Amino acid sequence: MYTLRQNKVARLIQKELAEIFQKESRSHFKGRLISVTVVRISKDLSVAKVYLSIFPSEGAGEILKIVQQLSSQIRGMLGRKVGKQLRIVPELDFFIDDSLDYIDKIDHILND
Hints:
This protein has helices at 4-28, 60-69, 71-82, 99-111, and strands at 33-41, 47-55, 91-96. By secondary structure, the chain is α+β, with helices and mostly antiparallel strands. It has a single domain (4-111), classed as K homology (KH) domain (GMP Synthetase, Chain A, domain 3), CATH 3.30.300. The longest helix has 25 residues, at 4-28. The mean pLDDT is 90.
């Protein structure tokens, strides 16, 4: 279970990363819509697992690779935004959140 501090830091990171991806989507991510669905942070607040939903989902792996290549720059932008609130800006590990695709697939199966 997560502590109150972990939950607060995760929500802060999720909010700020969502703003970063919204601003950068036109230039770096080929106009794709990237949503930060979940952020899970380690107990020592040093590593954050960030789950991204990418729309449209075709080519999501390619977009994820771009995000991973830009992770140090994204961490720097995040650090400038939350530097006053966090002592250490956590390392960011990005993953694709495919739960919406899974829900869509189940819904399609049930409707057939």
